[in-house]
Design goal:
Helix content is 31%, strand content 21%. The protein is an alpha+beta fold.
Length: 219
Amino acid sequence: MALRIGSTAPDFTAQTTEGQIKFHDWIGDSWAILFSHPKDFTPVCTTELGYMAKLKPEFDKRNTKIIGLSVDPVENHSEWGKDIEETQGTAPNYPMIGDTDLNVAKLYDMLPADEDGSAEGRTPADNATVRAVFIIGPDKKIKAQLIYPMTSGRNFNEILRLLDSMQLTGKHTVATPVNWEPGDDIIIPPSVSDEEAKKKFPEGWKTLKSYLRVAKQPK
């Protein structure tokens, strides 16, 4: 099953470090970030899980739940959490899915649907493609997806920035330019006419080209 931006995020029931969840019910009316890992006790992922725990209050402010996944049993996740706290200063403070039957990895097209077996005996290299981030809206649609190699740590500050952009653009029908940060000027999309723009931006805007109009970020 190929997933694209706009696809409905596959629903599933799974065991996590915080008990069993049904994914869509767990998301509720929130945004959600699902980020996956090929195996427990892997070095790059250890740093990522600790940093994500430190960032959790920022995601909470944005009505966004975070959940991790690793192709290992939940019991292993709990042990791994001790290492994460020891080395990174913060233990995971969000649920971690135990994907021992590879079900979620297959549903989210991180492993082939016809992949045989279970987590037992698999190496990180076997699960190298289980290194993805999915940002999911309250409507349960995939808003963004990113895939990383095992050797490159993810930049979760960028994922937070991307979330800010998507929440802003979805609320105000605007777009954000290259390297945008909260508070920077935004772009008025070509789909918004000048007449509509006058209502949305009474202070006006700067027209660089007929298709490129720049205005202050709406509140």
